[in-house]
Amino acid sequence: KLKNKMWLAASLGYAYGARSIINDELKDNKLSTIRLGITYAVPLGQHHSLRLVGFSGIRLEQGADFDSVSLLYQYRWNTNI
């Protein structure tokens, strides 16, 4: 169990498609990727928090392989909801 209202989330997605036709010719540019992500959030007070996000895209057919890491600051306007 995470302490002090911290939270952890994971995500998984699959993308398939994006074929194109140019001048009535079907191009071989179909994309097929799997995307994986994880987010960890730490509250810094009633209205403030920090989030650390890691994300990876894995190409199956065509497309880009990539990895990214982000550190985000978040301000929550209404905490009474």
Short descriptors:
four-stranded antiparallel beta sheet; 6 strands; 62% strand; mainly beta; two-stranded antiparallel sheet; 81 residues
Please, could you describe this protein's structure?
It is a single chain. A hairpin with a 2-residue loop joins strand 2 (21-22) and strand 3 (25-26). The chain is mainly β and 81 residues long. Strands 1-4-5-6 form a 4-stranded antiparallel β-sheet, with no helix packed on it. A two-stranded antiparallel ribbon has the order 2-3. Helices cover 0% and strands 62% of the residues.
Gap between N and C termini: 23 Å
Strand order of the largest sheet: 1-4-5-6
Order of helices and strands: EEEEEE
Structural class: mainly beta
Q: Given the C-alpha coordinates, what overall shape results?
A: elongated
In percent, how helical is the residue content?
under 10%
Question: Radius of gyration, rounded?
Answer: 19 Å
Indicate the low-confidence ranges by residue numbers: none
Q: Helix tally?
A: 0
Q: Would you count the extended β strands for me?
A: 6
Share in β-strands = over 45%
Q: Note the main sheet.
A: 4 strands, antiparallel
Q: Average pLDDT, to the nearest integer?
A: 86
Could you give a quick summary of the protein structure above?
With 81 residues, the protein is mostly beta strands. It has strands at residues 7-17, 21-22, 25-26, 31-43, 48-59, 66-75. It has no helices and six strands.
Topology summary:
Layout: E1 7-17, E2 21-22, E3 25-26, E4 31-43, E5 48-59, E6 66-75
Antiparallel strand pairs: 1-4, 2-3, 4-5, 5-6
